[in-house]
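Retro notes (design track)

What went well: tokenization of the new backbones is finally stable.
What didn't: we kept losing track of which sequence belonged to which structure.
Fix going forward: every design gets posted as structure first, then sequence, in one message. First example under the new rule, 362 residues:
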């Protein structure tokens, strides 16, 4: 059996082996082929798992009858920062009444893209799941097909040849008051966001330039012709989403929603028109997250990547395909709304419709 492609597997982000510092067994193949088992609906939703390293937040959502989609990240106790964001696909397999998860890494900080890791799980209650991962410390046999791997596991479920280490218990419990609050990928949407100064934003661009350009290139690669899009990720599942179709010199609105669930019917209908699904949005979200950014659009003559909100405005990076003509340098270097980073990239600050539009000054 050939290795399954990403879109053929479910997304599930329960790669909790990181908590124990153990090494998972990895494979080029899943235990069994796609579509043999329906989604286990008991896994759908938001889960919490605490460790000495911080709180792990896990999000799982259905994609279709056999596919799930979601992500997980670690929230550090000390500084309330998200890290180890990962996205993976996988699907259910049941062998002799034992439940397994096939999980294939797609994008993230810690996993090898395209490789499978495996979990078995026990449903303790509707609000708690016990997880075990297949360890690679005592088991490193490689197989030539999914069938070979499935046959081996079927024959050795009770054997010491298969070492499943306990990852922990994930619960739906709301963390207690001593837990740090979970912040979204976007900054707070309060009337006034913390002030950030232009030199800080320019430094952030320098540090994340390659990742910002990676997000830009992916966005461009999935853009349909004559379509203009703005998407801002408010958290793992909420977005601002505007889509317009170019008709001559005008833009015809297809959708314009704020703080909407990725999986609501209106957004799903538009995604089909774009020949997208939730997969494209999640990969885009992950790429922006890794670039420390929150939004992206092609509503202007440049790709605009939103960085963060500051005061009553928002910083963005305008990424041009060709060098900015000398006659436009003054416009894009006014030190109020714009600062040229170089002749391809401009820092922009957009304020509200009233008051100063200028970047904050020290």
């Amino acid at each position: 059996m050939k290795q399954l492609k990403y879109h053929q597997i479910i997304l599930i982000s329960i790669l909790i082996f990181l908590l124990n510092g153990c090494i998972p067994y990895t494979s080029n193949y899943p235990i069994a082929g796609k579509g043999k088992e329906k989604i286990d609906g008991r896994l759908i939703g938001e889960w919490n798992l605490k460790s000495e390293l911080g709180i792990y937040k896990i999000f799982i959502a259905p994609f279709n009858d056999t596919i799930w989609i979601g992500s997980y990240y670690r929230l550090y106790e000390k500084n309330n920062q998200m890290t180890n964001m990962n996205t993976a696909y996988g699907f259910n397999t049941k062998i002799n009444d034992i439940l397994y998860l096939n999980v294939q890494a797609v994008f993230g900080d810690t996993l090898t893209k395209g490789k499978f890791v495996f979990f078995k799980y026990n449903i303790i209650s509707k609000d708690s799941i016990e997880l075990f991962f297949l360890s690679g410390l005592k088991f490193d046999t490689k197989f030539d097909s999914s069938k070979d791997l499935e046959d081996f596991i079927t024959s050795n479920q009770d054997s010491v040849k298969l070492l499943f280490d306990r990852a922990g218990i994930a619960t739906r419990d709301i963390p207690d008051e001593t837990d740090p609050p979970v912040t979204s990928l976007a900054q707070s949407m309060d009337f006034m966001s913390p002030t950030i100064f232009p030199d800080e934003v320019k430094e952030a661009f320098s540090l994340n330039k390659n990742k910002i350009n990676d997000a830009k290139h992916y966005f461009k690669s999935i853009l349909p012709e004559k379509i203009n899009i703005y998407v801002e990720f408010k958290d793992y599942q909420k977005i601002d989403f505007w889509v317009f179709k170019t008709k001559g010199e005008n833009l015809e609105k297809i959708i314009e929603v704020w703080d909407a669930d990725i999986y609501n019917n209106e957004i799903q209908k538009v995604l089909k028109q774009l020949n997208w699904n939730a997969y494209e949005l999640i990969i885009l979200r992950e790429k922006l997250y890794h670039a420390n950014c929150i939004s992206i659009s092609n509503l202007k003559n440049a790709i605009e990547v939103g960085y963060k909100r500051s005061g009553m405005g928002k910083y963005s990076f305008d990424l041009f395909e060709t060098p900015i003509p000398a006659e436009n340098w003054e416009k894009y270097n006014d030190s109020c709304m714009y600062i040229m980073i170089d002749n391809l990239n401009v820092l922009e600050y957009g304020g509200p419709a009233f008051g100063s539009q200028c970047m904050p000054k020290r």
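Added context from the reviewer: Residues 6-171 form one domain.
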